[in-house]
Structures are given as C-alpha cells and as structure tokens.
C-alpha cells in the first residue's frame, strides 16, 4: 500500500495561499464593509434576519389572538344553537314516529333529550336519555330563561310554546330559539 506523502512545499504553499487570501479579504472588508472572503455560492440567513422574522411573527400572533378567540366563541354559540334546534326537531319527529312522549329537560349548563319525567304514564325502560353539556362547545355558554324548563313532545305534536336563550358570557351575545305550539323549532 502506497501512502501519499505531503511534501513540505505543498503544505507551506497551501497555508501561504490561504493567509494571503484572508489578508486581502480583510483589507477589502475594512475599505468596503463587504465580506469578500465568503463563498459567493453560500446560501443562508444571518442570525439578525432570523431574529427579526421571529419578532415580526410574534407581533402578528399577538395581534391575531383576540380575533381568533372571538371567532371561535362565535362558532361555538352558532354550533350549539344549531345542534339544539336539530335535537328539538329530532325529538318532535321521534315522538310522532314512535307515538310516545319525548321529553327535553333544560338546565343552565345543558339539556337532556328523551328524559322520562312523566311518572307512571309511560314505561321509562324504552327511554335512553342523552345529556348534552354546553361546555362541550364552550365553557362560556349557558341556557337562560327557558320557559318552561321541560318540553314534552307528544304524538299529536302539540306542546307549550317556549323561548330558549343560549348566551355567551364572553361575547355578551345570545342566540334565541323559538319552539311553537306545533313543536317546530327555529332560530
């Protein structure tokens, strides 16, 4: 096996060339302020450019956060009210189709569908109550002023009319749901 020997001249010539290039580059930098020793094909960002970019992004996020929070809360109240209307319509249709009474009980934190509240008049074993918590949409939602507290959909589809207010405490915004005497629910 043959090893390549670096002779002294090659070694000295290499370092002499590097030293001369560095010295010339340093002299040009002092005069022009431009680093000419850097490889012109070298690409990348300086630390200063990265810091400015991160700072600008941080400012934009700080400005956008309140808008996003309001948008999410608006979406939550809209979704919750649409879901409530859909559940009320479903309860009405289920009562007519099954020829049974379907109850909806309201609390400030949510509502229960298909709750058996009429003692003795029906077999409660066929009822499967479903609890809908408003906190699943947003922790700032509540039901206010539900009159009556219980809605009972019958097979004849006649009920006591009700007005339901779904309120967001953060936005001070409400969605109103009206249930008419025939059981129709609308926003």
Descriptive account of the structure:
The chain has helices spanning 8-32, 47-98; strands spanning 102-107, 110-113, 130-133, 141-147, 150-153, 162-168, 173-179, 185-186. By secondary structure, the protein is α+β, with helices and mostly antiparallel strands. It has a domain at 64-186: minor pseudopilin epsh fold. Strands 3-2-1-5 form a 4-stranded antiparallel sheet. Strands 4-6-7-8 form a 4-stranded antiparallel sheet, with helices on one face. It starts with 7 loop residues before the first helix and ends with a strand. The mean pLDDT is 76.
Overall average residue pLDDT? 76
CATH architecture annotation name of one domain? 3-Layer(bab) Sandwich
Binned, the helix content reads 40-55%
Number of strands: 8
* Poorly predicted parts: none
Q: Assign the CATH topology of one domain.
A: minor pseudopilin epsh fold
Number of helices: 2
Content-based structural category? alpha+beta
Distance between the amino and carboxyl termini:
90 Å
Radius of gyration: 37 Å
Q: Which strands sit side by side, in order, in the main sheet?
A: 3-2-1-5
Report the sheet-strand fraction: 15-25%
Major sheet summary line: 4 strands, antiparallel
**3D shape:** rod-shaped
CATH class of one domain: Alpha Beta
Comma- or semicolon-separated keywords:
187 residues, alpha+beta, minor pseudopilin epsh fold, 4-stranded antiparallel beta sheet, rod-shaped
Secondary-structure topology with pairs:
Layout: H1 8-32, H2 47-98, E1 102-107, E2 110-113, E3 130-133, E4 141-147, E5 150-153, E6 162-168, E7 173-179, E8 185-186
């Amino acid at each position: 096996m043959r090893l390549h020997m670096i002779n002294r001249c090659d070694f000295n010539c290499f370092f002499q060339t590097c030293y001369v290039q560095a010295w010339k580059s340093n002299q040009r930098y002092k005069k022009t302020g431009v680093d000419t020793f850097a490889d012109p094909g070298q690409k990348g960002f300086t630390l200063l450019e990265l810091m400015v970019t991160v700072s600008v992004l941080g400012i934009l996020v700080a400005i956008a956060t309140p808008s996003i929070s309001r948008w999410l809360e608006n979406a939550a109240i809209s979704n919750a009210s649409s879901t409530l209307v859909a559940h009320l319509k479903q309860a009405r249709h289920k009562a007519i189709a099954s020829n049974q009474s379907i109850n909806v009980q309201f609390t400030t934190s949510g509502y229960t569908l298909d709750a058996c509240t009429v003692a003795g008049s029906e077999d409660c074993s066929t009822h499967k109550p479903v609890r809908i918590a408003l906190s699943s949409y947003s922790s700032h939602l509540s039901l206010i002023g539900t009159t009556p507290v219980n809605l009972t959909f019958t097979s004849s589809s006649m009920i006591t009319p009700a007005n339901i207010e779904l309120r967001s405490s953060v936005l001070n915004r409400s969605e109103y749901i009206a249930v008419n005497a025939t059981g129709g629910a609308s926003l």
